[in-house]
Amino acid sequence: MTTRREQTSGESRELILQAAAGLFAEKGYRQTTFADVAERSGISRGSIPWHFGSKEGLLLAVLERSLDMIRTGLAEDPDAAQGAEAGFDRLMDSAHALFALPTTKLFVTLLVEALEPGSPIHGRYVEIHDTLREHCRRWLERLPLPPGLSAEALAVAIIGAGIGIHQQWLLAPGRVDREQALWALRALVAGALLPDRE
Amino acid sequence: MTTRREQTSGESRELILQAAAGLFAEKGYRQTTFADVAERSGISRGSIPWHFGSKEGLLLAVLERSLDMIRTGLAEDPDAAQGAEAGFDRLMDSAHALFALPTTKLFVTLLVEALEPGSPIHGRYVEIHDTLREHCRRWLERLPLPPGLSAEALAVAIIGAGIGIHQQWLLAPGRVDREQALWALRALVAGALLPDRE
C-alpha cells in the first residue's frame, strides 16, 4: 500500500521529470538549471537533488522515462501480426506514432550528449538503438528478402532513416517536411520489399 | 605572388585545422583546448587565436574545410550522367566515398553542436544539409517516380538514412556494420525506384 507521503513523493518526481524533459528538449541539457526545473515544475529547487542526486541523475531518469514511452509504443509484438503486409503497416504506423511523441525530440537532442566521450548516457543509448533495430529486424525476417540482403543491415538503414529524417527536421523545420519524408521512407521499403503489394 | 611569410602562415593555418579536425572528432569540441591543438599541430598556442580569433572561429573554419571536402566529393554533376541507372551508381558510389572520409565522422560529431540552441554553426549545417538534399533531389528528378512520391521527400529520407546509419555506427561501432547498412540502403532505393534493373 502506498502511503500519503510516498504518493506525494512520486507525484513530485513525475512533475520534475515532465518539466526537465520539456526544458532539455527546448533549451538543451547544458543550458537547463535546477532553478529552471524548479520554476516550471513548481517543486522546490532543493528537493530535485533529493530525488535525483545530480543533474546527470536527472538526465538519466528523463531518458529512462522516454525509453519506457518508446517501449510502450513498440509493445505490440511483430510476431503476432496477421501477415507480412499487415505487419508492415503496423510497424510503419507505430514508427509514425513514435516520431510524433514529444519525447522523440528530446531523444534526438540528447543523442548529442550520448555521443560525447565519457557520456553517462552512452550505454542507455546503445540499448535504445538495439531495441529499435531488434524490433525492426524481427519484422523484416518474416519477409522473403532479396538474396544477399540481411534483415540486420536493412534494420540499420531503416532505423537510420527515421533518425536522420528527424534530425534534418529539428535542424531546419521550415525546410524539411518530416511527414512527407516518413511517407517516402514507407514507399521505399514497400516498393523494394513488398513488390506485389499494389 | 605569395610571399614567404604568407605561405608559412597558410601552412600553419592548415596544420592547425588538421589537428583541430582530428581532435574535435576524437574528444569532442568542448573537451578540446587550444593547448591540445598546439601540441598536436606543433604550432605555438598563442598563434591559434591570431589565425581564428576564438575557439568558435576555429570550429567554423574546421567546418568550412569539411564542407569543401564534401562539395568536392559531390562535384560531379548528376545531370551529366549517361542515364538514370548510371546516375544511381555514381550517386551511391559518391555517397559511399563521402561516408568513408574521416571528415564525415567530424561532421556527425559536430551536429551535436549545431543542434544546441544559439549555436554559431547552425546556419552552416542547414546549408550543408540543403546541399546534400539538393544533389540527391536532382538525381531523383530524372527517374520516373511512383505517383504521389516527390523527389524532395525521397531526398530527405535517403540523406536521413545516410546520417542515421553513420550515427548508429559512431555510437556502437562493434554492433553496427555501416558498410552492410549502406548496401542495404542502396538495395532499398534500387528495388523501389529502379524495378527493372535486374
Summarize the largest interface: chains and residue counts.
A-B, 61 and 61 residues
Strand percent estimate of chain A: under 5%
Integer count of domains of chain A: 2
For this structure, the CATH topology of the largest domain in chain A is Tetracycline Repressor, domain 2
Report the order of strands and helices of chain A. Answer: HHHHHHHHH
Please report the number of helical segments of chain A.
9
**Average pLDDT, all residues of chain A:** 82
Identify the CATH class of the largest domain in chain A.
Answer: Mainly Alpha
Helix-residue proportion of chain A: over 70%
Major sheet description of chain A: none
CATH-level-2 architecture of the largest domain in chain A: Orthogonal Bundle
Low-confidence segments of chain A, ≥5 residues, pLDDT <50? none
* Oligomeric state of the chains present here: homodimer
> How does the helix and strand content of chain A classify structurally?
mainly alpha
Gyration radius over CA of chain A = 19 Å
What overall geometry of chain A do the principal axes of the alpha carbons give? elongated
The CATH homologous superfamily of the largest domain in chain A corresponds to Tetracycline Repressor, domain 2
Domain HTH tetR-type (chains A, B): 10-70
Keywords (chains A, B): DNA-binding, Transcription, Transcription regulation
InterPro entries (chains A, B): Homeodomain-like_sf (IPR009057), HTH-type_TetR-like_transc_reg (IPR050109), HTH_TetR (IPR001647), Tet_transcr_reg_TetR-rel_C_sf (IPR036271)
Protein name (chains A, B): TetR/AcrR family transcriptional regulator
